[in-house]
Design a protein that fits this description.
Length: 615
């Protein structure tokens, strides 16, 4: 939440910062602002609304040029999304500018304290206290990094801060606690940003900051210290994707591009994880095999779409390893006092690696002695750093707020973890693992086929654009797929959409069914689990008898559903447990098209942000 960019170097800072903010707008789009050090002072501009409003303001009233600056795109927490609350925030003398992501929990007390010393605060934000405190500290010590360290020691909560001071030009200072900040290191320049996408055009060499660290960036390098001033430990990394991956590449939206990238994302996530003999080689899982053998249960924590991946993973883990597997919303987990110990393997799934609820859940798990394995898409992020081990999904940058390719790769990673546990614990024979791996390797080609046949789904979505409600039904692994289909529709089309386990229908939800209500049904493969299949075919008949308009997603060759489908969407035959990989794609396309038909902006749905760094 909130995108932050800081720059020091030789390029026009405003250009670098605004281009960086464009890449970070997915993190929040309630307002945007910039500040540049120029002519011995500080020039700023900020506007409520999307970045385009700021762009217009800058075109009408250009700022003076300078090579040091910062910028912010906001997802509002404290104070309405208006011009006054937009970042950057300044001190009363207008010499220091601060941008912030997170929440400063003790801001009310600090605000009262500052007011008592005669400071006039101009906004309703928690952030503004930092600019005033920094100005005071700087006037006493004359060193922005030291001032930042002193101020950070006084702050409670989660924050990323980036600041510049007109009296110390040539320096950008950043700080982080429980909120993301990465450093890009170029030749004669340095970048501070919430995400590497902001500086990928200029450098792929990055530094991952640790917890409670302050970074001082100058043209000739960066210095990292702890909040107490001790040298800070950092990790250097090379970003393994380039600028083109962060562009729309000819698609109308990032979401469409990311849906289309799914075959490659799945293939990349499998790459290098299976040796020639078909054995899984998950070198990243540094948790000793002995510990995995002795583990008594798996607990998966995640939020939103990642939670749906976790629900599907439960079926695979329990079936393949015979270990009990619990799945819990990360936001509920630690408040429940969950039963955890050294024999619990906790899996934390997160695309961004920054979701605060998931981070807090994994911290709680580690405090109780559990081992934590992260499944994550973002190198340099906090969740993998704080876990015992990490399995990266190689989806590439996911920019659209609604998760698509990350979800599919999270599923692949979950299947790999489940098979790996089966391999290590000896609950799966080598040839059984090889069979599943062979099926997984065939998924990218199946996804290509699904994507080639989506025009009727798009057409159907357009015809349903004026509906008020859409229901989604599934059984077994099709149930989380139904939940995911409903979530996508809610967040993109702003429609009432609900996913149900089809067996629950008669226990209440069937009362919602009325004439012409669209109901999307995910049908499991008729091969293998025929009982499951037969039951859902009955469910389709039941809702159709009550007037529902049925949209049936069924495997190629499954003729039994044909008489009851008002609209039939075919997906390639896939083993039941892996079917979510192909069955989800039509639901993503459906939601994206329907939202577009309603005039919504699919990449940046209202009220949302990509990376949820507050609880
Ligand atoms: C929905 C969506 C969200 C995220 C959730 C977790 O399309 O994207 O529900 O899945 O906010 O985010 P991560 O995976 O970054 O922890």
């Amino acid at each position: 939440m909130c995108g932050i960019v800081g720059y020091v170097g030789f390029r026009p800072a405003l250009d670098v910062v605004v281009a960086g903010l464009k890449r970070l707008e997915y993190r929040g789009y309630d307002s945007a602002g910039v500040a540049v050090l120029a002519d011995g002072g500080l020039a700023t501009a900020k506007r409520a609304g999307k970045l385009v409003n700021l762009d217009k303001a800058l075109a009408e009233a250009p700022l003076p040029g300078g090579t040091v600056g910062l910028g912010h795109t906001r997802w509002a927490t404290h104070g309405a999304p208006n011009d006054a609350n937009a970042h950057p925030h300044l001190d009363n003398a207008g010499r220091v500018a601060v941008v912030h992501n997170g929440i400063i929990e003790n801001f009310a007390a600090l605000r009262a304290e500052l007011a008592g010393r005669g400071h006039a605060l101009a906004s309703e934000t928690d952030t503004e206290v930092v600019s005033h405190l920094l100005a005071e500290a700087f006037s006493a010590c004359g060193d922005l990094a030291e001032a930042m360290r002193q101020v950070c020691r006084r702050l409670d909560g989660a924050f990323t801060l980036v600041a510049v001071h007109a009296d110390e030009p040539g320096v950008v200072v950043g700080a982080r606690r429980n909120s993301p900040l990465v450093v890009g290191v170029g030749d004669g320049e340095a970048f501070l940003a919430s995400d590497v996408a902001a500086f990928i055009d200029h450098t792929r060499e990055a530094v991952e900051l640790g917890q409670d660290q302050v970074v001082e960036a100058r043209r000739d390098g960066v210095t990292v210290t702890t909040f107490d001033g001790a040298p800070g430990e950092v990790r250097n990394f090379h970003v393994d994707w380039d600028a083109s991956a962060a562009e729309k590449g000819g698609y109308a939206s990032f979401m469409l591009k990311e849906i289309a990238e799914q075959p490659k994302a799945v293939a990349d996530t499998l790459l290098g994880r299976i040796d020639e003999a078909g054995t899984l080689v998950l070198d990243e899982v540094r948790i000793p095999a002995e510990t995995l053998r002795e583990a008594e249960k798996v607990v998966i924590v995640a939020c939103g779409t990642a939670f749906h991946a976790a629900l599907i993973a439960k079926y695979a883990i329990e079936h393949w390893t015979r270990m009990p597997c619990e799945v819990e919303l990360a936001s509920e987990f630690r408040y429940r006092d969950p039963i955890l110990d050294q024999r619990t393997l906790v899996v934390a799934i997160s695309q961004s690696g920054e979701t605060m609820d998931t981070l807090m859940a994994l911290r709680h798990a580690r405090e109780q002695g559990a081992r934590v394995l992260a499944i994550c898409n973002t190198n340099g992020s906090t969740i993998p750093r704080e876990s015992d081990a990490v399995l990266y999904t190689h989806a590439g940058p996911e920019v659209a707020v609604a998760s698509t390719k990350a979800f599919l790769t999270q599923l692949v990673a979950c299947y790999l973890v489940a098979l790996y546990l089966g391999q290590v614990r000896g609950t799966k024979w080598g040839d059984e693992i090889r069979d599943v791996v062979r099926e997984l390797s065939g998924v990218p080609a199946r996804l290509e086929r699904v994507l080639e046949t989506m025009e009727p789904v798009r057409e159907l979505a357009r015809t349903l654009a004026d509906k008020r409600t859409v229901l989604f039904l599934g059984r077994h692994v099709g149930y989380p797929v139904a939940l995911e289909g409903a979530l996508k529709l809610k967040e993109l089309a702003y429609m009432h959409a609900e996913g149900f386990a089809a067996g629950e229908l008669k226990h209440g939800p069937i009362a919602l069914v009325e004439r012409d209500l669209p109901v999307v049904v995910v049908v499991p493969s008729p091969r293998g689990r025929s009982v499951l299949h037969g039951k859902i075919v009955s469910n389709i008949q039941e809702i159709r008898a009550r007037g529902a308009r049925t949209v049936v997603i069924a495997e190629e060759g499954d003729e039994s559903v044909v008489p009851y489908a008002d609209h039939l969407v075919r997906i390639p035959a896939t083993p039941t447990l892996l079917q979510p990989l192909v069955a989800t794609v039509p639901l993503q396309v459906f939601a994206c098209e329907l939202a577009t038909a309603r005039g919504n902006e699919v990449d940046q749905p209202r009220n949302l942000a990509k990376s949820v760094t507050v609880e």
